[in-house]
Amino acid sequence: MEILNNSSLRSFNTFGIEQRARHFAKVASTDALKEALSWAKKNNQRPLIIGGGSNILLTKDYDGLVIKNELSGYEKIKEDEDFIYIKVQAGEQWHSFVLYCLEHHYAGVENLALIPGCVGASPMQNIGAYGVEIKDVFHELTALHKTELTKRTFSLKECNFGYRESVFKNIYKDQFVITDVTYRLRKKPVYHIAYGAIRQELEKRHITELSIREIAAAVIAIRSSKLPDPAKIGNAGSFFKNPSVPIDAYLSLKANFPGIVAYENADGSMKLAAGWLIEQAGLKGYRQGDAGVHEKQALVLVNYGNATGNDILKLCDLVMQTVSDKYGVPLHPEVNLI
């Protein structure tokens, strides 16, 4: 393991923000990860674990040790009549794992195609898209305690998944490093095409016989048409969570804004489309210098070139305040602010 000093983080975050780490190391094994964490503890340096850097906004230099998780590999753990269990190392790219599943005809993650980031982040925030979340295919994960350097296995129940939430974002925040995730994938697909965008794309492609490959292709086409490529325009995908409100608050909003887009939650509350709220508040395509609201998808904040993390943060604050003033609905960032 090599530790670099005063290292640029521009190429390790998809916003393309230029901030620096006091110390930086890449780890490709659990032993190297333990070594890095031990070094951080011994030298009194706060460790920050990053994967694909697709869900962080760097607002300042990091005064500690940034550890880039590059653990890689796939392993078939077990299978039964209906399911196959695949353990994936946390540093693997998420979309590469989706492609792996398509190639081997393992169903369950096709709706999650083209989501940026690494496997280790998938249970951290219970990533989801088009009616599917990680909790739907999750079996268990292994995590390493940052200071005790002990391994612990977390079951589905122990992860306490919620909407873009897990125990790793609240009660265990900054305590563990996820090293691998085991997914329970179906041998016989159950298709999720309730979202209108998917149905429309399938119709556009004249698909009459469903398959996981066709659904993944539809999702990739939809995401590619709406979301900017981080390699071309810096961004972290959806910047805000979709807010939920009680049914009476939703009915009041609908009376004033008949076109409001919402979906019913299991508990009877209504999840509002944050992108619609932002767009209807007049901010789609809005720009402050090189920080902007994307012109095709208002849920995405972008760096047009030389925006700083604080430029993006100021725009975030403006969006939240504008939406709150117009609708009385608070927005919350999905991206981790560092």
Automatic annotation (TrEMBL):
Which residues of this protein are catalytic? 164, 238 (proton donor), 334
Question: Which cofactors does it use?
Answer: FAD
- The protein's Enzyme Commission number: 1.3.1.98
What Gene3D superfamilies does the record point to? 3.30.465.10, UDP-N-acetylenolpyruvoylglucosamine reductase, C-terminal domain (3.90.78.10), Uridine Diphospho-n-acetylenolpyruvylglucosamine Reductase, domain 2 (3.30.43.10)
Instruction: Name the reaction it catalyses.
Output: UDP-N-acetyl-alpha-D-muramate + NADP(+) = UDP-N-acetyl-3-O-(1-carboxyvinyl)-alpha-D-glucosamine + NADPH + H(+)
Top-tier EC class: oxidoreductase
Can you say where in the cell this protein is located? Answer: Cytoplasm
One BP annotation, GO: regulation of cell shape
**Can you cite an annotated GO cellular component?**
cytosol
- Is this entry keyworded Repeat? no
Q: Supply the alphabetized keyword list.
A: Cell cycle, Cell division, Cell shape, Cell wall biogenesis/degradation, Cytoplasm, FAD, Flavoprotein, NADP, Oxidoreductase, Peptidoglycan synthesis
Q: Which domain of life is it from?
A: Bacteria
Domain FAD-binding PCMH-type positions: 16-188
Checking SUPFAM superfamilies in the record gives: FAD-binding/transporter-associated domain-like (SSF56176), Uridine diphospho-N-Acetylenolpyruvylglucosamine reductase, MurB, C-terminal domain (SSF56194)
Q: Give the molecular function GO annotations.
A: FAD binding; UDP-N-acetylmuramate dehydrogenase activity
Cite the annotated pathway: Cell wall biogenesis; peptidoglycan biosynthesis
Keyword Flavoprotein annotated = yes
Q: What does this protein do?
A: Cell wall formation.
Q: Which family does it belong to?
A: Belongs to the MurB family.
Q: Which NCBIfam families match?
A: murB, PRK00046.1
Q: What protein name does the entry list? A: UDP-N-acetylenolpyruvoylglucosamine reductase
Q: From which organism does this entry originate?
A: Niabella soli DSM 19437
